[in-house]
């Protein structure tokens, strides 16, 4: 597609599968820059100039599954396993609250045992209490990312988190190519995750009042551009409130080394094209620029914002365990202290022209439209 044709397609409000495929296929520097700019401008028009921060706390890397792409899969015996103490988690959350981020995001390897469920419940109660003490009357926003759980567990956590206005869950579909999904999620004993179970978990979260986030990895070996178009359509049919997407990066602790990964420049372009195409198709969602993008290229999250993202999840996990949460090789930020986030904040504001939205929950317009909540 040349620049002139691109210009005429970008003038539209809704896009066909062919349009989306054309966006994803762009390689010409000028055309790509034009697409990314359009996504950035539409983000501004729909969401204003605020960039929302969520303090990301990686609370544990124990996992009972063997997702092939992931460096903290159960079968990776090289991984140093850890679980933060409740105090460490609450202090990390306090750091985020004091920085004015308004929300924290808790993530871990997947566990479904009662001990873990109760541990998370206890920590959520403490974070809620702490954030009220720190001056947020309703408690800070909380985003959970603990994989597929039962309805009962999701409900227990919702109650413990305390603030239903800013209760969120991230559960990526990873890919909507079912054959690929099954390959990624089968270990020694066969299938560990199924597509219907993933959809059901997302529906349950939605029913319980969570703001629901999903997403995919971009550039997985065996994934086509048509698959990415289908991913976007799946986000639409799930009526997602939030999206998080990043490049697939090979992990030596995973089980896909032989499958390789895309070449760096092409992967960066494809990732930005996918973020922008998704932004054009789903203008009201909150979309996060992933750490994986920062790992692919320094300043990657900034490039994500310049391609249509409006959420950043800076890592506020204590230094002592950061290097162990190695989902993929060379994960960015494993050596930095939480205070390096101040530099990230300044860099982001300077380069993207956005302003960090502080002391707000920063819920997506999509959620506010469907829930009738007017305030951020
Ligand atoms: N490359 C990129 N992203 C990865 N994730 C896990 N492993 C990788 C990898 N090798 C992402 C998955 C998961 C999220 C927590 O991290 O999409 O949902």
User: Helix tally?
Assistant: 15
What is the mean predicted local confidence, pLDDT? Answer: 95
Distance between the termini: 38 Å
Which series of helices and strands comes N to C?
HHHEEHEHEHEHEEHEEHEHEHHEHHEH
Helix content: 40-55%
Computed structural class: alpha/beta
Number of strands: 13
Ligand set: 5'-deoxyadenosine
Compute the gyration radius: what is it? 19 Å
Beta-strand content bin: 5-15%
User: Biggest β-sheet, characterized?
Assistant: 11 strands, parallel
Write structural notes for this entry:
It is a single chain. The chain has 376 residues and is α/β, with parallel strands linked by helices. It contains 15 helices and 13 strands. It has helices spanning 3-10, 17-25, 29-47, 86-98, 114-133, 151-161, 178-184, 195-207, 225-238, 264-281, 291-296, 300-305, 319-322, 340-352, 365-371, and strands at residues 50-53, 55-60, 103-108, 141-145, 167-170, 186-187, 190-191, 211-214, 217-218, 242-247, 286-289, 311-312, 355-356. The strands form 2 sheets. Strands 1, 2, 3, 4, 5, 8, 9, 10, 11, 12 and 13 form an 11-stranded parallel β-sheet that branches. α1 (3-10) packs parallel to α3 (29-47) and α2 (17-25) packs across α9. The chain starts with a helix and ends in a 5-residue tail after the last helix. It binds 5'-deoxyadenosine. 5'-deoxyadenosine (5AD) binds at residues 69-70, 172, 174, 217, 246, 248-249, 251, 254, 292, 327-328. 5'-deoxyadenosine is lined by residues 69-70, 172, 174, 217, 246, 248-249, 251, 254, 292, 327-328.
